[in-house]
Amino acid sequence: MLGKFNVGLVALSGCSKGELPTLVGKGKIEQAREASRFYRETFGNDFFIELNRYPSRDGMSESYILASFAKEEGIPVVATNNVHYAEMREYRVKELLNAVDQNIPVSQLQGHRTVEQYLKSSKEMERLFKDIPEAIDMTGEIAFRCNLELEIGKLYFPSFDTPRGETEYSYLSKLAFAGASRKYGSIKPGIKNRLEHELNTIEKLGFCGYFLVVWDIVRWASERGIQCQARGSAVDSLVVYSLDISNVDPIEYDLLFERFMHPLRHEPPDIDLDIDRRRRDEVREYVYHKYGGENVACVGTINTYMAKGAIRDAGKALEIPQEIIEEACMGIHYLSASQLLERSDSLPELKKNTVYKKSELKLFFELCAAIDGFPRHLSVHLGGLLIGDGRLADMVPLEWSSGGDIISQYDKDDIEKLGIVKMDLLALPTLTVIEYT
């Protein structure tokens, strides 16, 4: 796998838990040499042995052993600090989140624990590695080699298979005018001008393929008797109405297209589709089948710590008595976790408790405030689907959800910044009720 994706990568041997440092630390030098040869063959001159030094730790010797090994093998070294948090004072927060992740109290955390894994200044790093200045110099060399350009602002639409001889624009225009003829009988000048204006705007902004993708989904659903309609500002568009994506006539209701799309606003249109809740999965399966499993994924959503979640998780990790946790939760109906510390003395639910040490409660509330708004876990967006113009794994980090869906590790806002198409296929119970009425 490494050999397949090694091009353009700079590889470091890792912290003390890495394969090479572990072997060297255990005195398994021959095995370490074999491992280092493999990495040199794989990454060439882009492989470095990473050196960490923590003044408060006996493991300083590990750095010297690794440096000696690197010199013997002719492998360049680079100084790092294995950074886990920005400032030293955030060490407690990191410990707390580690405990929450492992579902154990902070007091039971195992392994190497140090307050030194913060983002040190250049002066601090130079002092630590004053005997190996080349390890510091190499950080600049690696930074110089790293060159990533994200084409922010570019849009990535899936290609739509148009009939032979048709472009996306010509095919969209043909469908729109044919639909308008069915709905209005004859196309009067006002309708013709409106359609041409909308189609020109859609083409200018490069969204013809997007409209065809949405049209195709709605067409497929309608042919199978699945209730499926657009919601929101999309109904302001005559093209959307003519394509049967919406049943709302923007001419009859005097709706303004520019509320939905404007030539000066280079944002992708957002057409949310409401679908009969019982049959939404059928529509999703069609999208997966049409565009390929590697090109489609669910949008991830990042759930963050709210007040009660922060209190419960922090309280459990710090072994705060359950009664204190419950009392704290009762008193925050109108507070965020970040307000707990300053308001704790005035909350009657907490003032009445005289059992627990005030200093420990202070730390508890400080940590609750620190993680307020932090990411708690990744879950699946209610209806968002990504459709790429190629393998999504080449564009977005993906993972399996607990429910078996492939989801993006980016949320909808980051997906939008990257310019990847997001389709909202929303399950609407109301449409199910209408179907039964």
From TrEMBL:
GO terms for biological process: DNA replication. Residues 171-427 form the Bacterial DNA polymerase III alpha subunit NTPase domain. It holds the Pfam family DNA_pol3_alpha. This is Uncharacterized protein. GO terms for molecular function: 3'-5' exonuclease activity. It comes from marine sediment metagenome. Residues 4-53 form the PHP domain. Transmembrane segments: none annotated.
